[in-house]
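The following block was generated as part of the benchmark described in Methods. Ligand: zinc ion.
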Amino acid sequence: MDEAHADLPSRYRRSDGTIDTARLKAEISIAAIAATASTLKRSGRQLKGICPLHDENEPSFFVDDGKGVFFCFGCGAGGDAIALQSRLHGQTFREACLELAGAHRGATPRPTATARRPGLRTRPSGFQLARAEWRGAGGVEGTPAEAYLISRAIGHDVPPSIRFGRIPRFWRDDGRPGPRLPARVAAAQDVRGAVVGILRTFVEDDGRKARHGETRLSLGRIRGSALRLGPVAPAIMLASAVEDALSLRLMFPGATVWSTFGDANLPLVELPPAVRKVTLCGDADATGRAAVAAAAAALMARGIEVDGLFPRAGAKDFNEEWVLLHT
Ligand SMILES: [Zn+2]
């Protein structure tokens, strides 16, 4: 078997070790993938919305869930669900397949593992783009990212793993970047602390959330990684959303709080061996409790001590609790 795909669930592997893309595509919804990046409205048999891959004001992006394809009449991008996932998140074909297959315990790639077979593609990988954009970003002080954080009451004493930059939403097929837009940039760090991806949260110049297109887009490697708002410690707090982690950090001064950029990555996050205890911090609703339960099972199976924490005072998340009770 091709060991390159060893972390793909076996039902998506053909007997010759290659990825069973037909099965993968049959089991996932391209509309669901597109819906994470654009607001779609039904238009006949298709769904229609603002293209997440180029800058536009009138919708020219179409998704046909029955056929499992997308096409944009504005920029000409098109393809299947794997291509859409890959374009939206700057992932390689393999990374996109793993993400869509929901593979567990995805190995964190070594930087050299992103080296591509010669001639396979010319665009830089999402990993490379994320690293370059991270290096080019700067501190949040006095930027729209700080204004955004202040509007959520989490703008003071922002840790250096959060930066501000003018970052493209997308790169063209020839590798040229799309328009650079203001964004809060959060570092996705692997188990050794290396930045392997970023989460872009697009904001307006006045600090409000971006009015057009998806507000949040990841780039590079999010799976298995974490935003570190404090150093490695024997006991850490782990939250799903970045805003919740920033709020918890203010509610529990001195605690190490990390974010996994979303519920899906909560059970998958790879923790350094020095971390022995994790307090899982979830939303108050059923989704949040289910995410904490899934992560608790995964971490306990790895021998990590686990407890759970949920927002108080009827707040739905920790940012709301912070705003309600502490500011
Ligand atoms: Zn387009």
